[in-house]
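Page 37, continued from 36.
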């Protein structure tokens, strides 16, 4: 059952509206532009952010797609994977049997696959995904640019009644849902135009992730059978993510709602209400706490014990306050919103954050730290928050895909096991980096930098 919580307070709603009106006046007088080039001017200044999952692995990590690992994405294309029309028809005949066994009706299957063939563009995208080498600060320059913030405020203002109702029903703040909307589809401007049945069938037939994409395809057929959308209108990204907030089909079945009451869960159409409500329900069902920050920027005292940083180390606010951790905004104490961690996404020379359980809830939507920070920071700025006060090591570069694997191999060989060699710089690798840094007399901040890799290469 959907949980009921108090909605947005009158005072918060008033501040939200006043802030947006003031910002609109400022923008009218002095147009704000993104500090990064905008490749899609038709989007009225809102540049789509690169797929957030690219920060960790090479395929979209929309809800329910997190089973795809970096190692799996690197699987070579074998003769068995090569695509051709005859082979696709053979696969389709076999899949039809499996779909019928799963309870999908013959009429739905016939309607869904009428005219469907191998989508060569999907195969090309899947096999030639670009290496992602952006740093966190480059990502945030786009994710929370002044232009994206302005567009987010406009989107929130235009849909305030709907978003307030969604917040009342699901207990997820309107600005958080707006921020996810902004990062996933540029507030609905880039929802994707690839036929989902074509894409899922092509990726399932290609074979590298057959079981995964067949499951998504079965889910897509269930959506068609329920009457939420027709095959021609079911469109999205080449990897299967759909609608305003880019749900995979299995996530749609688990979380999508008919918020408008028209009898369809429509996340694809021009009215974003169902998509925004579905996203709120997703976060709610994954443990969102209304009124709890995702994170707050903090300053660390001289002599801070950096071995206490990292997402896996959690203490209450009193502990961090005794250590001398203070809010970057005003220098006040760390507020008590439950167990919290100190996160140093760019090492001890960059921004420091105290993160709460809601950070981890956003991770269920997409586990890349940069995505979570992007959503949280954009949400804060939409309702009038400031940019980060701390700096970033902008002279640094991001590790390449191969370098991340190399870093893990070298750490493990040096006796600081990362437990997995998967190219993902997650909590296990960060802890191994910290242990190595401490052993070498370095600041143990867990920052996996190019300089650290060079040191490991020297032995």
């Amino acid at each position: 059952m959907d949980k009921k919580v108090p909605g947005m307070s009158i005072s918060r709603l008033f501040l939200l509206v006043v802030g947006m009106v003031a910002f609109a006046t400022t923008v009218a007088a002095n147009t704000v532009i993104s500090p990064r080039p905008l490749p899609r001017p038709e989007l009225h200044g809102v540049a789509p952010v690169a797929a957030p999952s690219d920060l960790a692995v090479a395929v979209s990590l929309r809800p329910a797609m997190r089973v795809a690992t970096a190692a799996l994405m690197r699987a070579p294309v074998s003769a068995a994977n090569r695509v051709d029309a005859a082979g696709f028809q053979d696969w389709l005949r076999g899949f039809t049997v499996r779909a019928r066994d799963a309870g999908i009706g013959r009429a739905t299957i016939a309607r869904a696959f009428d005219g469907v063939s191998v989508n060569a563009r999907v195969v090309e995208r899947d096999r030639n995904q670009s290496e992602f080498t952006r740093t966190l600060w480059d990502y945030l320059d786009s994710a929370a640019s002044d232009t994206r913030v302005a567009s987010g405020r406009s989107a929130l203002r235009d849909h305030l009644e709907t978003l307030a109702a969604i917040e009342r029903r699901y207990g997820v703040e309107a600005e958080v849902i707006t921020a996810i909307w902004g990062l996933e589809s540029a507030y609905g401007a880039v929802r994707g135009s690839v036929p989902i049945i074509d894409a899922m069938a092509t990726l399932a037939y290609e074979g590298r992730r057959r079981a995964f994409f067949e499951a998504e395809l079965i889910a897509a057929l269930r959506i068609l059978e329920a009457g939420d959308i027709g095959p021609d209108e079911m469109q999205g990204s080449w990897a299967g993510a759909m609608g305003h907030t880019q749900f995979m089909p299995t996530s749609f079945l688990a979380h999508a709602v008919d918020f408008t009451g028209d009898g369809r869960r429509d996340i694809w159409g021009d009215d974003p209400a169902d998509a925004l409500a579905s996203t709120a329900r997703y976060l709610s069902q994954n443990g969102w706490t209304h009124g709890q920050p995702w994170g707050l920027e903090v300053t660390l005292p001289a002599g801070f014990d950096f071995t206490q940083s990292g997402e896996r180390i959690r203490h209450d606010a009193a502990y961090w306050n005794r250590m001398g951790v203070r809010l970057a905004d005003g220098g006040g104490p760390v507020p008590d919103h439950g167990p919290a961690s100190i996160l140093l996404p760019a090492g001890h020379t960059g921004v420091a954050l105290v993160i709460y359980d809601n950070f981890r809830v956003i991770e269920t939507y997409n586990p890349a730290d940069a995505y979570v920070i992007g959503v949280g920071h954009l949400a804060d700025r939409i309702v009038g928050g400031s940019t980060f006060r701390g700096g970033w090591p902008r002279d640094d570069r991001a590790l390449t895909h191969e370098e991340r694997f190399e870093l893990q191999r070298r750490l493990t060989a040096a006796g600081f096991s990362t437990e997995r060699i998967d190219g993902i710089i997650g909590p296990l690798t960060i802890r191994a980096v910290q242990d190595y840094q401490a052993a070498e007399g370095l600041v143990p901040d867990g920052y996996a930098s190019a300089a650290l890799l060079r040191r490991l290469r020297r032995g």
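The chain has 19 helices and six strands. Flag for discussion at group meeting. Residues 418 and 428 are 6 Å apart (CA to CA).
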